[in-house]
Design brief:
It is a single chain. The chain is an alpha+beta fold and 103 residues long. The protein has one domain (6-100): GIY-YIG endonuclease. It contains 5 helices and 3 strands. It has helices at 26-35, 40-44, 59-70, 74-87, 89-100; strands spanning 6-13, 18-23, 47-56. 26% of the residues are buried.
Length: 103
Amino acid sequence: MDEKKFYTYLLLTENNTYYCGYTDDIKKRYQKHIEGTGAKYTKANKPVKIAYLESFKSKSEAMKEECRIKNLTRIAKENLVKNFKNLTPNLYLIAQEISSLYI
């Protein structure tokens, strides 16, 4: 049986801003953001892709990472996104696949 995973994600919006959150179902959560029902911020700032995704074994870990990322500077977030493909290629592919479903 697969162990439940929790995710911290960073969305890039059409206004070139970032939105950070956590979830236990990244596909469903991204769809909610696209539909405008995921968060007030993404209702006003439509996401264009999942720019960063990280998985954790516990909700607590994912929430801690969300808090850490939210406190990063814009430049630090951009560096996180820039290095995403090389650091975790399997999660990068998942993010690309989910993002492409809602183009």
